[in-house]
């Protein structure tokens, strides 16, 4: 199991070819293109200067839209995951 | 539904061709050009170093002017939205 | 009406051709040239890390000198305004 | 009257040709060259994150040495002033 | 023994040729490639502005994935170690 | 007299040709070369966000080594001084 | 004697030709190469925004590994020292 550190989040990216259930289609404009995926694991959050842990806003299992060029790819048990910081996540799809 | 994270805001941009009700016309000078749209959803706000959530200043339904080159386009249920940070919003049009 | 957010301020720039009442003439040296205008609307101020709103130092109606290349032009009801941050305002002309 | 904002200061620069009373002569080395002038007006100081105003260290009437390339020139009532931040002032000449 | 300072961590990198037990294989896409290794020693943590030591989140003996281009190589007693900051560690492999 | 502001310090640089009493000779490697001088005047220190003045660590009369390319030259009463920030001072020579 | 300021540390670098007792050999890869030396003197530490002195983590006499390109060379009493910031020290060799 991958346990991300601090404000990092492990995402299982949704295949681009697969039509998403929520109907999100990636635009093809010149703007930065976000990508969709499911949260697999979340870090415990950063520790503030006051020594307190600040919990993350996303939870395991949520579907999220994240900045396409963010994060680091990791292959684990045959699957490809993406490790991003919470700040790279734009929105939760409910 | 798109639920933006932290200080992010989901905007439905106003079509450029459509004459705006408030009479705002985008200038054609060399200056950065703002754009107009309606707030569709707002994040819960950032968490400060003191562990307190700082609520956002804009509300769902408000008409706002935002920096044209800000944010990330997201297509959802056939519509195109823009996810921006609150700091990219210049003013609310009342 | 334009309601600027946070530490932003809406300015109605003074026409350059118009001789200003206070006698300010823009210099033509190599230095950055400021511009003069009237404050039309001010934001509520930024929220500090302690969660407190820090009110702005300029008020509606004041005549101010601001950095020439600052801000974003917005046309509204046929007039051209400039939305700047308070930090781009150099001085109030009394 | 020019009332500078925050940590800004209005300076009346000393003419370079004029021999200064204190005997300061600008060096002609490759180093950044400071300039001398009199403080005409000072801002109220910045507001800290704790919401407290931090008063400036220089006072109206003092003779100061400031970084030559700092600030913005403003002409007012026929005179040329310089608006700088307090951090651009190197020393007070007593 | 190497005792890292502050938020630094000493890692013994896993040989690339060696097939990892957890099955992690480094991807060959254009993205930044992480690397795997074992934590050999951890620093005492940074001291916050409040004067309190903030302990690190990783422990000696843990297997971690870290950013490939992070840190400084050190040879010690014939082995090659990597000294990285905790922020360069993406996740703990459990 | 020159009274430096905040964390600034006025130094009277030691002539390079003069053999220093403490035996310090400037190295001629590719590294940044420090220079030696005597502290002539020190500022009152910066004001912290808590509104408290943080006194400087160097005192008038001390011999210091400082970064060679730091600061601003000022000629005053026929002598050449250097105004630097305390952070540009590497060490006190006792 | 050299008394470093704030978070600075005076190091006597170990000659590269000399075989180190602890067996550290500098690697010849493309990575940044650290260097080894002994701590000769440490500063009193930085003063935090709360006005408290934060003591350094290294002590006089300790053997340390530091970033090779960090710091400033100083010759004193015929020896060459290096003045670095504590953050440039990677680890203490015990």
TrEMBL record, chains A, B, C, D, E, F, G:
Keyword vocabulary terms for this entry: Chaperone, Cytoplasm
Location within or outside the cell: Cytoplasm
Function summary: Together with the chaperonin GroEL, plays an essential role in assisting protein folding. The GroEL-GroES system forms a nano-cage that allows encapsulation of the non-native substrate proteins and provides a physical environment optimized to promote and accelerate protein folding. GroES binds to the apical surface of the GroEL ring, thereby capping the opening of the GroEL channel.
Entry-linked Gene3D superfamilies: GroES chaperonin
Cited NCBIfam families: PRK00364.1-2, PRK00364.1-6, PRK00364.2-2, PRK00364.2-4, PRK00364.2-5
Species for this entry: Sporolactobacillus shoreae
Protein's name in the database: Co-chaperonin GroES
Gene Ontology molecular function: ATP binding; metal ion binding; protein folding chaperone; protein-folding chaperone binding; unfolded protein binding
Keyword Transmembrane helix among UniProt keywords: no
Region of interest (Disordered), ranges: 13-32
Assembly: Heptamer of 7 subunits arranged in a ring. Interacts with the chaperonin GroEL.
Gene designation per UniProt: groES
Source species, domain of life: Bacteria
Entries under HAMAP family matching the protein: CH10
Classification via PANTHER family: 10 KDA HEAT SHOCK PROTEIN (PTHR10772), CO-CHAPERONIN GROES (PTHR10772:SF58)
Lineage start: Bacteria, Bacillati, Bacillota, Bacilli, Bacillales
Family per record: Belongs to the GroES chaperonin family.
Any Gene Ontology CC annotation: cytoplasm
Record has Chaperone as a keyword: yes
């Amino acid at each position: 199991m991958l346990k991300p550190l601090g404000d990092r989040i492990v995402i299982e990216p949704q295949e681009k070819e697969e039509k998403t259930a929520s109907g999100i289609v990636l635009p093809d404009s010149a703007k930065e293109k976000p990508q969709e995926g499911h949260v697999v694991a979340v870090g415990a959050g950063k520790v503030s200067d006051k020594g307190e842990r600040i919990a993350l806003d996303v939870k395991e299992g949520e579907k999220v839209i994240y900045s396409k060029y963010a994060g680091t790819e990791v292959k684990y048990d045959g699957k490809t995951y993406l490790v991003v910081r919470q700040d790279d996540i734009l929105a939760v799809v409910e």
